[in-house]
Amino acid sequence: MKKWFVLHRKEWLEMTRNYKVIWIPLIFVLFGLMQPITSYYMPEILKNASNLPEGSVIEIPMPTSGEVLAQTLGQFNQMGILVLVLAFMGIVSSERKSGMLKAILVKPVRFSSYITAKWMSAVLLSVGAIFLGMLASWYYTVLLIGDYPFMNIVKGTSLYLIWIMFLLTFTVFLSTFLKSSGFVAAFTLLLSILLTLLTSLFEKYMEWSPAQLTNAAASLFISGKLEGPLMLPLITTVILTALILYLAATRKSSL
Amino acid sequence: MELLEVKSLTKSFGKHVAVNDLSFSIEEGRCVALLGANGAGKTTTLEMLASLQKPTNGSISFLSVEKRDYREYIGYLPQYPVFFPWMNAIEYLVLMGELSGLSKSKAVARANELLELLGIADAKKRKIGGYSGGMKQRLGIAQALIHEPKLLMLDEPVSALDPVGRREILELMKLLKETTTILFSTHILHDAEEVCDDVIMIHKGELAVTASLSELRRKHQEDVIIISADENLDAWAGSIENWNIVSKVISTNNKIEIYVKNVAEARNLLLVEITEKKLPITKFTVGQTSLEDLFMEVVGR
Ligand SMILES: Nc1ncnc2c1ncn2[C@@H]1O[C@H](COP(=O)(O)OP(=O)(O)OP(=O)(O)O)[C@@H](O)[C@H]1O
Ligand SMILES: [Mg+2]
């Protein structure tokens, strides 16, 4: 257990030295800010951008706070996932490539400690970054558009984070198996896009899908209550995450 | 006592057999050289012993126990050591120390001690990314020693070093072998002869020779007299070839190597010859062949 913390601490030191602890949260905060701000100024932006005849009036209904927050979530679900996957695609594969994996595993360290310490650092940083991003979004939404209950933010974001954890675990998993970080990113993004797409296309058959958690979080933001399937996707996601992590941590073959 | 015993160790990569049915053992307190040409399977063997590769076949027992995790008792220097370039030497050694099971304070003390011993204490606060190859090699040895292992395994510890560095590391190994069992690989026989007690020679993945250095010397070393001269002495070299005290004569340019059976007698006879024939010699050396020849014999052709 002590060695696990040593490894975990090393991950944080590395993420500090390469500024990941700064730029990842920063990107999420920026995405978070942008949504309420662009929604608020959208009429002005459109007015300036288009060459409408003098005197014409643009009427765009101002979205509700909940809608803006759900849009932020949508933004996180595209650009945010891209950022996280790119940031963590090499988490294991780059160390295997450089030979650092061997340098560490020649010491009496369990492979599972090595993987789970890395996994935990990626999860904690991502959770922190997304919470900060949502917090920024919430703050500006309240400021510019209208009041919104803070507890809903916490609930919705937590739900959404389970989906993110699933994708992060998948990233770590692929990173332990694949040589190329590029493939890790490509396959994880493919999985995320496929799941999201299939879930919206075949809603009936995809009630179990982890991507349902995003929908659940969005509906919570918009209407204040949970609509659609929740327990089933929650259970499958948790089980799948645990299973993938287990497979990654018990991988035995060549280093 | 037997520290490590290897029985019919085999490793194949697909069809290619890198290590084939290798058996040997290492006694505690010995310094053992693993000799072999490029591609002989030295690195593969050492990585299997360090549990970095799984043997295709065969067994390894450490202190008479088979299939145990003995990583806490070994220190390993890879052929091309790598580090976290964004760490400095102290941070790296402390990390490796803690991963080896030392407490933080013990690891710090040990790290400083080793940096001093290896002569890179001046650079200990510098990022490893900026280290030279030789400094990395030293840091690699330091990380292998951090937890005072019972068995130190070094994969070509001096190949990457300049003559001065090579000298220093060989001296260090002589010092270390007083307290630690050492297994090191090399393709330079001269280095092996200088520090090791035992030799394991492998060729194309198979065991060729395993013996103590003194045994090898007794069996394979010959007395040799080397004569250098101002002019070509090929003709004369031919004439002494059939002396029955001479076993072999090799003449190249202005140098003649004469392998002899009885060095004292041969020396006198040769000196008499030289004075009688007024041969213009510049150098007359009496010595012994190195084990290089044995190595060439095993590896060669
Ligand atoms: N991962 C691998 N896949 C395929 N073949 C390999 C692999 N590792 C080693 N080999 C082969 O096994 C043989 C032995 O390699 P090894 O690295 O052990 O040699 P070595 O004695 O350390 O050589 P050198 O002195 O050049 O370091 C070589 O023919 C090499 O090509
Ligand atoms: Mg090698």
Automatic annotation (TrEMBL), chain A:
The membrane-spanning stretches of this chain are 21-42, 76-94, 115-140, 160-178, 183-202, 230-249
Keyword tags: Membrane, Transmembrane, Transmembrane helix
Say if the entry is tagged with keyword Mitochondrion: no
Superkingdom of the source species: Bacteria
Q: Which PANTHER family match?
A: ABC TRANSPORTER PERMEASE (PTHR43471)
The protein in question is named ABC transporter permease
State the organism named in the record. Ureibacillus manganicus DSM 26584
UniProtKB/TrEMBL annotation, chain B:
Q: What organism does the record attribute this protein to?
A: Ureibacillus manganicus DSM 26584
Family under the similarity heading: Belongs to the ABC transporter superfamily.
Q: Where is the ABC transporter domain?
A: 4-229
| CDD domains named among the record's database cross-references | ABC_DR_subfamily_A
State the PANTHER family in the record: ABC TRANSPORTER RELATED, ABC TRANSPORTER, ATP-BINDING PROTEIN
Determine if Nuclease is one of this entry's keywords: no
The name this protein goes by in its record? ABC transporter ATP-binding protein
Q: Name one Pfam family in it.
A: DrrA1-3_C
Checking Gene3D superfamilies in the record gives: P-loop containing nucleotide triphosphate hydrolases
- Give UniProt keywords alphabetically: ATP-binding, Nucleotide-binding, Transport
GO molecular function annotation: ATP binding; ATP hydrolysis activity
